[in-house]
Amino acid sequence: MSDTIVITEIRSEARRTFEICNACRYCEGFCAVFQEMTDHRTFKDATLDHLANLCHNCTACFHACQYKPPHEFAIDVPQVLAELRPQTWQEHAWPPSFARLLERRGVSISLLIASVFSLFLGLSLALIDQNILTAQHIGSGAFYKIIGHGTIVLLAGAASLWAIVAMCVSANRYRQSQAFRDNSLHSASVRTAWRSVLHDIFYLRHLGGGHDEGCNEDDDRFTNLRRYFHHLTMWGFLLCFAATSVATVYELLLGWQSPFPHTSLPVLLGIFGGIGLLIGPLGLLYLNAKRDDLHGMSVAFIVLLFLISLTGFGLLILRETSAMGTLLAIHLGLVLAFFVTLPYTKFVHAIYRTLALIQFHRIS
Amino acid sequence: MKLRPMPRATAKEHKKLVRTSIKAGTNILVIGGGHAGLCAAISAREAGASVVLLDAAPESMRGGNSRHTRNLRAMHTEPTATLTGQYEAEEYWQDILRVTGGETNEALTRLVIRESYPLLDWLSERGVKFQPSLRGTLSLDRTNAFFLGGGCALINALYRHATQIGVAIHYEKEIEHVELSDGTFRWAETKAGETFRAGAAVLACGGFQANTDWMVEAWGDAARNFLIRGTPLNRGYVLRDLMAQDVLTKGDPRQCHAVAIDARAPKFDGGIVSRLDSVPFGIVVNRAAKRFYDEGQDFWAKRYAIWGRLVAMQPEQIAYSIIDHKMHDLFMPSVFPAITANSIPELAAQLGLDASALTDTISQFNAAASEATCDHTILDGRTTTGLQPNKTNWAQPLDQSPYHAYPLRPGITFTYLGLKVDHHARVQINEDTAAPNLYAAGEIMAGNILGKGYCAGTGMTIGGVFGRIAGINAAAGLTI
Fold first, then answer.
1. Is there a single domain that holds both residue A178 and residue A288?
2. Which among A155, A293, B149, B164 is placed 20 to 30 Å from B299, CA to CA?
């Protein structure tokens, strides 16, 4: 089936679902999705996409639904929105063909890209000097004895620039499809909405199930596990990002060269962030597997985050041994693959959800 | 607020029971796993009894009609976390008195009202979550406490709690016979002959609206055209079985909570989404394309529950709510799309009505209606003149195509004929005696309070209050 047929079918099921939900509205206390829904009498494609990106998949509404299967109405809001959500990302992704490829073979392609980068880094050095990878390098600037400083800056810069450009294009295409009223993220009403948006994001309000006791995982019991794992992943990612940023400032502005001491700010941020990225992604992978919610974009993202953290710790522990060179090549390969695939992985949910929350809070 | 203690049966009243219960494996059998049954089972278990709860449905459809509910009506003397203002016992009583036209038992009703307030906290402590009423259609934010996520969420919370505290729950056990001897409960039996013995039983298995034969007995063949808004399993077997054993009943078999719902709804379990709010925005005609009742008598929230009976009295138990284009977006969206046509004769053809009769009805209505725009937020008094019947509010001509129609049928929520109970929730065997170990709660005894008419949210209040009373007394009876 072509992608257009797939997304059309998913949207028509979402439309059928919301036409029933809108005549019931028992779930209006759960989350933004149902509050937003009541503003509509008919559901355009863009509205359905917006509702899909507003949904945090806590599944409270499914368990509370008197029309869930085996009822003949067979309502499952979180399921149909979970199917629609990655479709909306793919539809707006740029370039679209790369997104479709990653959706189908997300994990293998990401790891392939990582391997290619790692091999490239490893081999290009081995060609220069066979012993350079396996020799011990200690002290300031040791990493750059393996891989030249210029090479790292060039590769990392190119990969992140690519990610930023691709994601900006996607976000803009999505905003246009949503017809944001004044088509500007800087109007006064948006600014007043930002406080609520940031609270929703950093508190993960909508993973609280409408009562702060959490989502449903196995059954109708509430648990905050998903929220905790997501917090670990999100803050882990942000701390690692901060670690990299601080390190960049040290190197480019202050002229200090890595590796930095264990007690330095970049290393400490990286350690705490890395712990988050070891536990969080594994937890989310486990919870998603139980829900049978493992699509390519999501798994690739989670697996890369975990492996980056794992090799990062490996590097920290073994950086004064002969394994450092190989580990560094692998670690940097993974990081580069992470950035190259970033615009097509689960990471983009952060962008789309933020846009959806801004739209929700502005309207409400 | 000072609350009197929950009514408990005296030690003397339970003497007989003690001997029988000691021999029984299970202390208390609760028949029916909706709100009332769960409240009874939890109360009895918390009082130390061993409790078995039977639900006729499979686990996926458990909870009877409660799964379709949304709120309960609760008195309160000051604002609560989710209720605004105050709703004093006396106002509550006057509301019940008005809707029932006096066909109610004052003592039992006042008991329900008094206990409705502590019921809120009791449910919260057992995992039920409430929310402030948001944008629902009925303005009930002062009188009714809304369940976060609706009745199914409430049912889930109570099942979860019941399981945690050790209530044994069995699904797909539909009881057809309750064995009484000397006015005392002995055992209950399924159709397959499986028996459940217990020292006491709480009957909480609902009305008989899903039993078409019984409905036909009460209503004639008209009942075949009724839609049942909730569970297909409320067939009244237990009630019928006890009636055959000459146990006292209360209420009229024709009385029930009946609303006009979309005729395209499924026969059973359509629930809230089959509701239609279009009636006050236009006119309603029957098969003969004639109007038959004042569509603008009062706000819809106060009138929707009489329209089920009105439609039931029409030929073939069908009616059509007809509006014009300017009204289409003014009420809650319906799950079934309107039947739409560009002219009245075309609409008549689509509905299978006589085109000239419908055209006549609408022209007469338009001629008698006010030209001014009506205001649906108030009783605007814009009435037709000279029609039989008149539309006494919001009468505005139907003159803007396209025209829209919704077919209406009676949707039965629950029947009122039930077991007569005393204030201990004990089933009355005859005028002088209550069964020492047989209790009833919920729709199966709601007729004691609601002889006719309905006040939104009282069904769940009766279930919760009498469920708790039944459970506490059943357990107390065993330990005295």
1. yes
2. B149
Cα dist. B179→A190, A253, B99, B206 in Å? 68, 89, 36, 18
Mean pLDDT across B73-99: 93
Among residues A92, A114, A145, the one where a domain terminates is: A92
Query: Nearest to residue B235, comparing CAs of B209, B253, B263?
Result: B209
* Residue B178 exposed, middle or buried by CB count within 10 Å (0-12, 13-18, 19+): buried
Contact A23 B275 (CB under 8 A): yes
Task: Please indicate if any CB of chain B lies within 8 Å of the CB of A221.
Answer: yes
Cβ-Cβ contacts under 8 Å, A212 against chain B: none
Query: What is the distance between the alpha carbons of residues B474 and B21, in angstroms, rounded to a whole number?
Result: 11
Domains contained in chain A, number: 2
Judged against a pLDDT cut of 70, whether residue B17 lies above it is answered with no
Nearest-by-CA chain B residue for A63: B153
The DSSP secondary structure of B252-316, one letter per residue, reads -TT-EEEEEEETTS-SB--GGGGB---GGGSEEE-TTS-B-S-TTSS-HHHHHHHHHHHHHTSGG
**Mean pLDDT across A70-93:** 94
Q: Are residues A28 and A160 in the same domain?
A: no
pLDDT of residue A125: 67
Closest Cα partner for B212 from B228, B188, B194, B229? B228
Whether residues A102 and A200 share a domain: the answer is: yes
Which of A64, A92, A120 is the endpoint of a domain?
Answer: A92
Q: What pLDDT was estimated at residue B230?
A: 97
Same domain membership, residue A185 and residue A68: no
Task: Check residues B13 and B291 and name the one with the higher pLDDT.
Answer: B291
What is the spatial distance between Cα B212 and Cα B209, in angstroms, rounded to a whole number?
7
Those of residues 15-44 in A touching chain B at CB distance below 8 A are 19-20, 22-30, 35, 38, 41
Cβ pair A28:B135 closer than 8 A: yes
Is A231 in the same domain as A103?
Answer: yes
Question: 3-class SS at B71?
Answer: strand
pLDDT tens digits along A209-255: 889 999 998 888 999 999 999 999 999 999 999 998 998 889 888 88
* Domain definitions of chain B by residue range: 12-254+416-479, 258-411
- Looking at residue A156, its pLDDT comes to 83
Superfamily of domain B12-254+416-479: FAD/NAD(P)-binding domain (3.50.50.60)
* Distance (Å) from the alpha carbon of A185 to chain B's nearest alpha carbon: 29
pLDDT of residue A192: 75
* DSSP result, B291-307: B-S-TTSS-HHHHHHHH
Range of the domain at A280: 96-363
Q: Which CATH number fits domain B258-411: 1.10.510.10, 1.20.1290.10, 3.90.700.10, 3.40.50.10330?
A: 3.90.700.10
Q: What is the pTM of this model?
A: 0.91
ipTM of the complex: 0.91
pLDDT of residue A256: 84
Residues A307 and A345 in one domain: yes
CB-CB: which of B134, B152, B266 is closest to A66?
B152
Q: Is the pLDDT of residue A190 over 70?
A: no
Choose between A122 and B36: higher pLDDT: B36
Per CB distance under 8 Å, which residues of B are interface residues toward A?
60-61, 67-68, 70, 129, 131-132, 134-136, 146-153, 156-157, 159-160, 266, 269, 271-273, 275, 329, 332-335
Q: How far is B464 from chain A (nearest CA, A)?
A: 19
- Residue A135: what pLDDT? 65
Can you give the pLDDT at residue A205?
A: 93
Q: How confident is the model at residue B101 (pLDDT cuts 50, 70, 90)?
A: very high
For residue B233, pLDDT over 90 is answered with yes
Same domain for A308 and A273? yes
Q: Determine the angle formed by the axes of helices B106-125 and B89-100, rounding to 10 degrees.
A: 120
Same domain membership, residue A126 and residue A86? no
Question: Longest C-alpha distance within chain B, in Å?
Answer: 76
Q: Tell whether A69 lies on the interface with B, counting CB pairs under 8 A.
A: yes
